[in-house]
Design goal:
Number of helices of chain C: 7
Strand content of chain A: under 5%
Mean pLDDT of chain A: 84
Largest sheet of chain A: none
Order of helices and strands of chain A: HHHHHH
Chains: A mainly alpha (251), B mainly alpha (224), C alpha/beta (210)
Shape of chain A: globular
Largest sheet of chain C: 6 strands, mixed
Bound molecules: adenosine-5'-triphosphate, magnesium ion
Mean pLDDT of chain C: 92
Distance between the termini of chain A: 28 Å
Number of strands of chain C: 10
Structural class of chain A: mainly alpha
Largest interface: B-C, 30 and 35 residues
Helix content of chain A: over 70%
Shape of chain C: globular
Order of helices and strands of chain C: EEEHEEHEHHHEHEHEE
Helix content of chain C: 25-40%
Distance between the termini of chain C: 30 Å
Oligomer: heterotrimer
């Protein structure tokens, strides 16, 4: 188990360094934007990973609603949390990029706007999840919300696009017209970010699972203690009022 | 008796409870009017607003009012465990959602009639040229909005942050609806502005989704 | 058709903590069953699961061998610790409302008849929020008997009732069981439990005969 984790972290670390090498040194400056293109490698790949992680969150939420395994809910919520992080990175890098290009930190560019709304959608998710008592109920409610939110994303995107289509596509971020070395750097950044995502998801899910396991173990210890106390008092049934101190449940 | 009658029974219950000391309509209306007033002051008592601003402000006021009012429903259902009564009855449980939606829409509609009248008077907005379109947009818009609000209020019903959370969830989720309603209202105020059919489709899509989703999910959300 | 309400292999957890474990229970028609156990041992949870109000973590609730669905809920009369009434409606309106939910004919007359039965005709037009505890309990009992259920699931039904209405409801429940109804009653009073045909208790989350 530990070996696998070390290997995973090592691979992600190497990928991260290589990604920075390609982004900052390997790829040439762009014709019109110059070195600003380098932000794009991080911006675009974190945006993609953000979308991916919300999709994963919704998928596992659906699985949870069908199968009711706690692990599915843990994966779903961890993925949404990581998605919020990537969305934040997207927004910050987008802003950094927009300032020199459009001469403003913020424009009502459809993609930027959609991303911001997306951020709010999932901050709402985190608030909702954080404020509900009861594990099962929390899982069900946040699962339903995760599904609704993902279904809403394309609608938001198109609506914002129709609403504000005055901005020309400054750059085609899909990168079809990029030179090969830039495209390579972008793809590499995507792969590296994906690896980071997978690692974070694994760590976070494991953490949640361990937390629940710990909780369960603590309960079981309490029960064992309670039963032991029960055995020491064989005539407990004669004293109904004493039964109140006996924990219930068993294994 | 069939499902339709049961549905009306549930709506009747909500409306009756509202008339007995629920202050949904009154609080909606007074909050909304207050917002109109504040907006008027914020605009420095502008003598006339462009139609695009007027429609945007109108829906902003309606959104805030509905979002804040949506959570008022829940406390009464919880008080003596009343919500479990319909849950035990031999009916499809999602019917409870549709009845709540209908009752909420009715109350929002009553409040918005007063609100819109005062909006036009206080902000000195010219009477909508395409009045029929305007009425249709307001009716459909408040229907979709109260549906989404009821659904999200149900989701947030178990949360300790319920009152704050409903607006926080409702706004991002319904931004396309918001944009569509503004465009359509703008069109109603000034028919020279063309509103694409896409906006009508968005409102329709919201109505369909809010109509179908609870049928599948409502029972699930409220299960204990 | 006489139905059997049954639990098979029911587990219920709250926050990963087992409350009920591997519960198998059959409630036969005409049987009077008492359940008594200490506070917090899962009696109310069990009733809620039987009534289809709470979803078991694992296991199934069946009515005559089939899953408990909307149609089967018609046969259940359920009284929980909460009265399940609306504070803003009057006593009469509450009963009319529930009669209509159960699609009963002549809801108003039925409501009036039940209000008279449980001795609330004087307070029929008073809002339930202004009722005393015992009055709410009577109204809640009227609510769960109103539609002529075949199974009664009662969580501490005599809680807050005065002697006269208690005797009245005891008589009513006996008659109900004689007529072939299933009575499942949670009580903390040993003498009440002894009057029943079958006594159950919950220990370590498992339901046992006692
Ligand atoms: N909604 C809930 N969330 C978390 N735990 C709950 C919930 N409802 C009940 N429990 C727990 O389940 C256990 C059983 O509760 P339940 O209400 O069924 O007990 P009870 O036997 O009816 O007690 P009483 O005699 O006081 O009515 C309790 O330990 C309680 O803490
Ligand atoms: Mg109880």
């Amino acid at each position: 188990m530990t070996k696998r984790w070390i290997a995973g972290i090592g691979v992600v670390g190497i990928l991260g360094w290589l990604c920075q090498y390609f982004a900052f040194i390997g790829s040439p400056p762009e014709k019109s934007m110059g070195n600003l293109i380098r932000i794009l490698y991080f911006h675009a790949s974190s945006a993609w990973i953000a979308f991916l992680s919300f999709g994963v969150a919704a998928f596992f939420a659906l699985c949870y609603l069908i199968r009711r395994r706690p692990i599915l809910d843990q994966i779903s919520s961890s993925s949404a949390e990581i998605g919020v992080m990537y969305t934040t990175v997207t927004l910050i890098t987008g802003s950094l990029w927009a300032k020199p290009i459009w001469n403003a930190w913020w424009t009502w560019d459809p993609r930027l706007t959609t991303t911001l709304i997306l951020w709010f959608l999932y901050v709402g998710y985190l608030l909702l999840r954080g404020s509900i008592e009861g594990l099962e109920r929390r899982a069900v409610v946040s699962g339903v919300y995760a599904i609704i939110a993902v279904a809403d994303v394309p609608v938001i995107h198109f609506a914002v696009e129709w609403w504000n289509s005055i901005h020309p596509q400054v750059i085609d971020e899909t990168g079809i017209n990029m030179p090969g070395s830039m495209l390579f750097a972008l793809m590499f950044a995507f792969v590296a970010f994906f690896a980071i995502y997978v690692l974070l998801l694994a760590v976070r899910t494991r953490q949640e699972a361990q937390r629940q396991r710990l909780y369960r173990l603590r309960r079981e210890i309490q029960e064992v203690r309670g039963r032991a106390a029960d055995k020491l008092q064989p005539d407990i049934s004669a004293h109904p009022q004493l039964q109140m101190s006996v924990p219930k449940g068993s294994k | 008796m069939n499902s339709v009658q049961v549905f009306w029974t549930l709506v009747w219950k909500d409306l009756r409870a509202e008339m007995r000391g629920g202050r949904f309509v009154v609080s909606c209306l007074s909050f909304g009017v207050l917002m109109v007033l504040i907006v008027g002051m914020a605009l420095n008592a502008a003598p006339h607003l462009p139609a695009s601003w007027a429609s945007g402000l109108l829906w902003m006021v309606l959104f805030f009012t509905t979002a804040l009012a949506m959570t008022r429903h829940d406390a009464k259902e919880q008080e003596f465990g009343g919500w479990m009564g319909p849950w035990l009855a031999p009916i499809d449980r999602s019917l409870v959602f549709y009845a709540r939606w209908c009752a909420a829409w009715f109350m929002v509609l009553v409040a918005s009639v007063g609100l819109i009248a005062l909006f036009f008077i206080i902000l000195n907005v010219p009477f909508p040229v395409a009045f029929g379109t305007f009425v249709a947009v307001v009716a459909a818009g408040t229907l979709a909005l109260s549906g989404a609000g009821t659904l999200l209020a149900t989701l947030a019903g178990q949360s300790s942050l319920r009152e704050v959370l409903v607006p926080i969830l409702l706004f991002p989720i319904s931004i396309p609806l918001f944009l569509a309603l503004i465009r359509l209202t703008w069109h109603a105020l000034d028919p020279a502005v063309i509103a694409g059919a896409a906006w009508v489709e968005i409102v329709g899509a919201y109505l369909v989704v809010v109509g179908v989703l609870p049928w599948l999910l409502y029972e699930l959300i409220l299960e204990v | 058709m006489k139905g059997v309400l049954a639990l098979t292999g029911v587990y219920k957890e709250y926050n990963l903590r087992p409350v009920l474990e591997d519960v198998h229970l059959r409630l036969e028609p005409g049987q009077r069953v008492a359940l008594s156990a200490p506070n917090g041992s899962g009696k109310s949870t069990l009733i809620q699961i039987l009534a289809g109000l709470s979803r078991p973590t694992r296991g199934a609730v069946t009515w005559s061998g089939r899953p408990l669905d909307a149609a089967a809920r018609r046969c259940l009369g359920v009284l929980l610790q909460q009265p399940m009434l609306y504070g803003d409606l009057t006593g009469r309106e509450n009963l009319v409302f529930f009669a209509r939910l159960y699609r009963l004919a002549e809801a108003r007359q039925l409501a009036d008849r039940w209000l008279a039965e449980v001795g609330l005709d004087d307070s029929a037009q008073v809002r339930v929020r202004e009722y005393s505890k015992g009055m709410k309990q009577r109204l809640a009992l009227a609510r769960c008997l109103l539609h002529g259920p075949r199974v009664l699931l009662l969580d501490e039904p005599f809680d807050g009732l005065d002697t006269a209405s208690r005797a009245y409801f005891e008589g009513r429940f006996d008659a109900f069981a004689k007529a072939g109804g299933t009575l499942f009653l949670v009580t903390h009073h040993p003498e009440e439990a002894r009057q029943m045909d079958r006594q159950l208790t919950i220990r370590f989350g498992r339901v046992r005969e006692s």
